[in-house]
Design goal:
Length: about 375
């Protein structure tokens, strides 16, 4: 065979080899470098707790995560005068011996004569409210452990990112739709929402820092868990905006804030909120009502007017007087009484804080040592 024919044969063989390699890489090689899109679209969020079991989010949705937690979510019935006055949702967060502990909203169990819970197996069991607080809007219910009960893993909302897939399980509109699953995204963090801690009064007296989600939230979902795709609880469903022009704006209390108060409530103790020692009227209310006769400058449109000072409180030992207008607390602006409480409750009994106030059109400051709201 001539040398030219040998070279030609070698080139043909080499071309076949290169072509085969390229075809393998293009058609099948992607599977070897980690593209498993045929079986999974998302491997789920990173677990935020050390003992979390990571689940897979695939084309079937979050069914694996739902199955993991479903038996730990219960419907709650609030009985008053032997009738169901309200319903909501709760979830098991701890099992200890023969007892299990359920977390829910305080407004779900308010004024209850009796509390019962309905399990995922449709059994109604009795519950005992150990403690609750309107400002945190969290209550703890103790129940007897039963077959099939599960405790949900408490996660971490601080590691959650906007756009993360989240879901909740609850009892929207009561018994008929118990165990409903709704999915959405984490739509916002650190939202400040004004709320009322007393269902019998109008207006807001408290500001909550909450997570925002576009998952479907309806009456009856209150107290349920907001979870990431691994089934870890990152928040407790608390409220939604109810306006005809608003859709898909639900809110949950971050689980870290709940964790800081839950042990106290579990013991049946009252949360010791710090007391400033003044009764307050919002500047906006004082300026718009003929009932009040306070000297409020025209250019002052926010803050609270000191309407009275409690004897024995920190305010009584300060320079504050009735008629003063509190505008800042430790440098943070105070819009109204709800925002004042929000700033105040960041501190503890015994802390000394600086109050900025206006008297006779001039700005002043004074120091106040906070006392306990639990004192009689």
């Amino acid at each position: 065979m001539s040398s030219e024919r040998i070279k030609e044969a070698v080139l043909i063989i080499v071309s076949f080899v290169i072509g085969g390699v390229l075809t393998f890489v293009i058609i099948g090689g992607e599977d070897l470098v980690g593209n498993n899109s045929s079986s999974s679209t998302n491997s789920g969020l990173t677990c935020s707790s050390a003992d979390c079991t990571k689940v897979v989010v695939d084309e079937s949705g979050i069914s694996e995560a739902v199955e993991k937690v479903y038996d730990g979510v219960l419907m709650i019935r609030n009985y008053q005068n032997n009738e169901v006055a309200a319903t909501g949702t709760g979830f098991v967060y701890k099992i200890d011996g023969d007892n299990a502990y359920v977390m829910t909203n305080q407004h779900v169990v308010d004024n209850a004569d009796k509390i019962t819970l309905i399990t995922s197996n449709d059994e109604e069991i009795d519950g005992e409210v150990l403690g609750g607080d309107s400002y945190v809007d969290i209550a703890v219910i103790k129940i007897k452990k039963y077959d099939g009960i599960k405790a949900l893993q408490l996660g971490n909302s601080e590691n959650a990112k906007l756009g993360d897939l989240v879901f909740t399980i609850g009892s929207p509109l009561g018994y008929e739709y118990r165990g409903s699953v709704s999915t959405g995204h984490l739509a916002g963090k650190d939202r400040l929402v004004s709320v009322s801690t007393d269902s019998n009064t109008s207006g807001s007296d408290w500001v909550m820092k909450v997570l925002q989600t576009d998952a479907a939230i309806n009456p009856g979902n209150s107290g349920g868990p907001l979870m990431n795709t691994n089934g870890e609880v990152i928040g407790v469903i608390s409220m939604k905006f109810v306006q005809t022009e608003v859709e898909g704006m639900g809110f949950a209390i971050p689980i870290e804030y709940v964790n800081s108060k839950i042990e106290t409530l579990e013991k049946g103790e009252k949360i010791e909120w710090p007391l400033l020692g003044v009764s307050m009227i919002n500047v906006s209310d004082a300026k718009n009502s003929y009932r009040y006769n306070y000297n409020i400058p025209n250019d002052v449109n926010s803050g609270v007017v000191v309407a009275g000072i409690q004897s024995g409180s920190g305010a009584a030992d300060s320079d504050l007087k009735e008629g003063d207008i509190i505008t800042k607390l430790n440098g943070e602006e105070v819009q109204d009484s709800a925002y004042l409480r929000y700033e105040l409750y960041k501190y503890s009994v015994g802390d000394k804080i600086e109050i900025t106030y206006i008297r006779d059109g001039k700005e002043h400051t004074t120091k106040v040592t906070l006392t306990s709201s639990n004192q009689s």
